[in-house]
Amino acid sequence: MGDRAVITTKNKDVGVYLHWDGTMDFVEGFLAYCDLKEYRSPEVDDYGWARLCQVIGNYFGGKLSVGVDRYEKLDTDNYDNGVYIIENWEIIGREYQHYKDYHQDNMDEFLLEINRRMPKHEQVPSYEIFSYAKKWNEKHLKEEKDTEEGDLNNDR
Fold this sequence. Notes:
By secondary structure, the protein is an alpha+beta fold. The chain has one domain. Helix content is 44%, strand content 16%. The protein has a five-stranded mixed β-sheet, with helices on one face. Helix 1 (24-36) crosses helix 2, helix 1 packs across helix 3 (107-116) and helix 3 (107-116) runs antiparallel to helix 4 (126-155). It is globular and about 40 Å long.
């Protein structure tokens, strides 16, 4: 049992496995925090994978919940959240998604919580988080609303 997901890039060489909290709102939050911190993204080089794992590991703590492996060895069709394909810290595709999910609608609160769990010297000032979250919400929540309205128009 869990709420599993795999995060990978288009080339599917490497992936990050989440056993818990693999829903879109959590994954988007982790990606957004990495973007906020201006980390290099995983498709650029391996440091992106390291930073993503660092953020997720700091958030969860403990010994479980996150893993890294070659993509073909990961539990991709896991009947939970499937696979998130990312580029530039954005979700650009999904595979093995068995149900509809939604964007993070409290990005500022989630980024603050992620930030609180980072080492003190790595934390971002809250005003930067609020500024980033406002821009993120404007972009992503508008896209979701536009998609839903388009779906409604197609159903008519």
